[in-house]
Write a structure and sequence with these properties.
This protein is an alpha/beta fold. It is built from 10 helices and 8 strands. Helix 9 packs antiparallel against helix 10.
Length: 316
């Protein structure tokens, strides 16, 4: 593969990253010049409330290799990446977060693997700068997700990755709106490999993640790529029926052997609470899948673009 004849598109999803954008631009530019390929950098400003739009305008005014896409509001990082992938013209596309937790200096290793014939090269987070609780929580989630998913999803792999054009085209053709790109990327198949790296903390500001957001993120992945929660309802039903049968036998035996055995409202209350809890759990699982269906059937756009500067897809 002659890299001089290839174009690589870097798609950077930005939210509250005004301070990091100039640093990311400098590091990406230096990296691409070292690789020796043609390139474009696409910053997707996903409705940032800071001055990201003004910062990007200064960069796009002086460098036509840089495209900025500004969304009308925040549509989530997954749709920001989707927006950038739709705009990208490269033979390969790199996805990165704009907070510099995805180091641009790792991309040459991605390119080496791509040149060797791999269609997807993803960053494997073997270590991260975070609290011990978060480190353990993330590792547990990825392993649980792998166990529950109906496809083989790499563990410790985020969105930071390089994808060949044919993989990007498949992802762009997918009509679903509730997107979990690291799962969709694995669903495509083809040759995939990981590159280990240590994920640093944000260089500027504080993280926008919180425990509630992380739980929602975990649910998005699991309910998008697993049917096991629905199967759990069948298992719970079988368990309840089995317990009910045992209960009938137990009360039948104790009625004849020990007429003074405890009975009455306490037993009824416990049974009602138990069965009510099981029913609510089952309804919540069904509700999660219904919410996904509800989101998909409305067919709303994945994002709305306010402005594109340096549109490389526009007719010349």
């Amino acid at each position: 593969m002659d890299l001089k004849e290839k174009t690589i598109s870097a798609v950077v999803a930005c939210y509250r990253d005004a301070q990091a954008i100039p640093v990311m631009y400098e590091r990406l530019t230096k990296m691409f010049q070292g690789v020796g390929c043609k390139y474009e950098i696409i910053f997707v400003n996903d409705g940032s409330p800071d001055d990201s739009e003004a910062v990007l305008k200064k960069i796009t005014d002086v460098d036509k290799n840089v495209t900025s896409i500004t969304h009308t509001r925040n549509f989530s990082s997954q749709n920001a990446f989707t927006s950038g992938m739709t705009q990208a013209v490269g033979d390969a596309v790199v996805l990165m977060d704009g907070d510099l937790q995805d180091p641009p200096e790792l991309i040459p290793k991605f390119v080496e693997k791509w040149a060797a014939g791999y269609d997807v090269v993803y960053g494997e987070r073997v270590e991260r700068e975070a609290t011990k609780f978060l480190q353990v929580s993330y590792k547990l989630f990825y392993r649980l997700f792998r166990k529950l998913s109906y496809i083989k999803v790499p563990v410790d792999a985020g969105d930071f990755s390089l994808m060949d054009r044919r993989v990007v085209d498949v992802l762009n053709d997918m009509p679903e709106r509730d997107r979990f790109i690291r799962g969709l990327r694995a669903w495509v198949g083809l040759k995939q490999v990981g590159v280990p790296y240590k994920r640093p903390e944000r260089l500027f500001g504080t993280t926008t993640n919180n425990m509630v957001g992380n739980i929602r993120w975990a649910k998005k992945g699991i309910f998008s790529f697993s049917y096991l929660p629905l199967e759990l309802i069948s298992y719970l039903a079988a368990i309840v029926v089995g317990l009910a049968a045992l209960g009938m036998v137990f009360y039948g035996v104790t009625y004849f052997l020990d007429p003074g055995a405890p009975k009455g409202t306490t037993t009824i209350i416990l049974l009602v609470l138990f069965l009510g809890g099981i029913q609510l759990l089952c309804l919540s699982i069904i509700g999660e899948y219904l919410a996904i269906i509800f989101q998909e059937v409305k067919h709303r756009p994945k994002y709305v673009i306010k402005e594109i500067v340096n549109d490389h897809r526009a007719p010349k």
